[in-house]
Write a structure and sequence with these properties.
Blueprint: H1 3-23, H2 27-54, H3 62-78, H4 81-101
């Protein structure tokens, strides 16, 4: 397994934990973890871009990823934690898991 894939998978697991905290309505703990997790999410996204440069056949939809992150940040700014959790769960995580599935 490549180092890039490991980084992305670790981030996926971390975001799953954050989403669980939001759904359990542990908002303060979820936000604290999300603040830390953002850095790891960016590291995972960087790893995807690095992986793409090394593998010509790897497809990464930058626009889709950008839109997901914008939607998440808008939900956060609006204070809508349920929407934020839904975006992380059904948009971000699903797309990241699809990408990991396409990595060697």
């Amino acid at each position: 397994m490549s180092g890039s894939k490991d980084v992305v998978m670790k981030s996926i697991e971390e975001v799953k934990g954050i989403v669980d905290l939001f759904y359990q309505q542990k908002e303060k703990e979820a936000l604290d973890q999300f603040t830390i997790g953002l850095s790891n999410m960016m590291t995972a996204i960087d790893a995807l871009f690095t992986y793409r440069t090394e593998h010509d056949d790897f497809v990464l939809d930058e626009a889709q990823l950008t839109n997901i992150l914008k939607d998440a940040m808008n939900a956060l700014q609006d204070g809508d934690m349920v929407l934020l959790a839904d975006i992380l769960q059904y948009d971000y995580l699903e797309y990241m898991e699809e990408l990991v599935g396409n990595m060697e």
